[in-house]
Amino acid sequence: MYPVSPGHPNYSASGTNKFIPEIWSGKLLVKFYDATVFAAIANTDYEGEIKNYGDKVIIRTTPTITIRPYVIGQNLQTERPESPATDLLIDKGNYYQFVCDDVIAHQTDLNLMNNWSQDASEQQALYVDSDILTNIWGQAHALNKGLTAGKRSGDINLGVSGTPLQVTKENIIDVIVDMSLVLSEQSVPKSDRYLVVPEWFGAMLKKSDLKDASMTGDGKSILRNGRIGMIDFFEIYLSNNLAAASDGGHTCFKCYFGQKSALTFASQFVKTETLRGRAPSATWFAVSRSTATRS
Fold first, then answer.
1. Is residue 268 domain-shared with residue 132, that is, in the same domain?
2. 188 and 144, same structural domain?
3. Could you give the CA distance from residue 179 to residue 195 in angstroms, rounded to a whole number?
């Protein structure tokens, strides 16, 4: 508002007369959310087979058949194929519940229930994404992590607590190629491979030799189109939900690489309802959700 001279009436909303109203925008400020990646790196092959919180899906696996050399006239050795099943346990749940007074919902010019429910849905996705990226770390195969990764080579350094792998713009491409080699030595299919890294990793890639379009095979440099895309069979995903820790004076991140069939995700909304609270003018909105992950 304009300043008011002494002795002149104040007509603004903050003054006594209030002839000039305050205007509240009918649009809510856009809220930005961290990008989630779990839907891109996990399969949902068994999601339709769960029904309620606490259920368990038994997943049968294909046994490995032994191949033996053959000599004419020999007695053939017979095997009975066995392969242990693995369980997909629906053992995690979360919920949200908020209150909106009826009188507020009636008088406001915004659809608060719809807006808050949309935000709750986004927060659910971020919660699940962070939970997955935090808890699947310890389930990686011993030959796919650490200072001596590689089923055949056994000399690929992927870092470990106390001796983290330092990534620079000079060695970042080599690091990605090494990750791909680790999967290839495990005979992992080259399709649907993924790499989840923090945002600074993506920025460093753009500073590396990949900024030269001729090296990527694209028509434009990644500095021009802003897209990292695929590098050595990996689809690169950037995430702010990776767990970080201080190690040796450096901020370190637990990054993931793998193939989509290795991680299964299942989720169901069990119940969604509007509840009438004890207060005569209050309405609560609640939802519960059960989730499971297997890697």
1. yes
2. yes
3. 9
Same domain, yes or no, for 207 and 131?
no
> Higher confidence at residue 169 or residue 217?
169
Render pLDDT for 61-82 as a digit per residue (tens, 0 to 9). Answer: 888 899 999 999 999 999 999 8
Instruction: Please check whether residues 33 and 60 belong to one and the same domain.
Output: yes
Residue with tokens 């890697």: 295
User: Averaging pLDDT over each range in 27-31, 87-91, 198-202, which range is the top one?
Assistant: 198-202
Helix axes 172-185, 199-207, angle to 10 degrees: 110
Round to whole Å and give the CA distance between 82 and 13: 79
Tokens at 72, concatenated: 């004419």
Q: Is the confidence at residue 39, as pLDDT, over 70?
A: yes
Is residue 24 very low, low, confident or very high in pLDDT (cuts 50, 70, 90)? low
8 Å CB contact between 244 and 137: no
Counting residues of the chain whose pLDDT is more than 70, the rounded percentage is: 71
Contacts of 148 (CB under 8 A, 6+ apart): 154, 155, 156, 157
Q: Is residue 16 part of a domain?
A: no
Whether residues 117 and 200 fall in one domain: no
Count of structural domains, the chain: 2
For 206-255, the three-class secondary structure string (H helix, E strand, C coil) is: HHCHHHCHHHHCCCCCHHHHCCCCEECCEEEEECCCCCEEEECCEEEECC
Confidence of residue 7 (pLDDT cuts 50, 70, 90): confident
pTM reported for the whole predicted model: 0.73
171-180 CB contacts, 8 Å cutoff, 24+ apart:
172/201, 172/204, 172/205, 172/208, 173/208, 173/209, 173/210, 173/231, 176/231, 176/232, 176/234, 177/232, 178/149, 179/234, 179/257, 180/232, 180/233, 180/234, 180/257
State the residue range of the domain holding 149. Answer: 140-240
